[in-house]
Design brief:
- By secondary structure, the protein is of the alpha+beta class.
- It has a single domain, classed as HIT family, subunit A (2-Layer Sandwich).
- The chain is about 30% helix and about 20% strand.
- The chain has a five-stranded antiparallel beta sheet with strand order 1-2-3-5-4.
- It starts with a helix and ends with a helix.
- The structure holds zinc ion (ZN).
- Zinc ion binds next to helix 1.
Length: about 130
């Protein structure tokens, strides 16, 4: 999709702070995180609505989310990783993975803008062996 910001990120036309990728999926830090380490997981193929995709793709996507959540939880020492799918902001499937420590933390009112340099430091922490 030409005007899709996530497709542009996948093509490298818009920079992102990458956490992980493989052939079909990409994960990067949200520039307006609700909490430190707030990650977006997206399929590289442009589809709009998560519940419209084929079963095998859906399962694969959720398994990628599970694996990523384990890494985020371990590296960022959060109690849990919350998962949210809305898709109104950008109509390219994306799963929000948000490190959380108590109830009601996944509130978009908690969003704050974070500088790229700061995001890179968080990425280093997540990627450190
Ligand atoms: Zn797209």
């Amino acid at each position: 999709m030409e005007d899709c910001i996530f497709c542009k990120i996948i093509k490298g036309e818009i920079p992102c702070v990458k956490i992980w990728e493989d052939e079909n999926y990409l994960a990067f830090l949200d520039v307006n995180p609700i909490n430190t380490g707030h990650t977006l997981l997206i399929p590289k193929q442009h589809d709009e609505y998560i519940f419209d995709i084929e079963d095998n793709k859906y399962c694969e996507l959720l398994l990628k989310a599970k694996n990523l959540a384990k890494i985020l939880k371990l590296k960022l020492q959060s109690k849990r990783i919350g998962m949210v799918v809305e898709g109104f902001g950008v109509s390219h499937i994306h799963i929000h993975l948000i490190p959380i420590n108590k109830m009601n933390e996944m509130d978009s009112k908690n969003k704050k803008s974070v500088e790229i340099e700061e995001l890179k430091k968080i990425a280093d922490k997540i990627l450190k062996k």
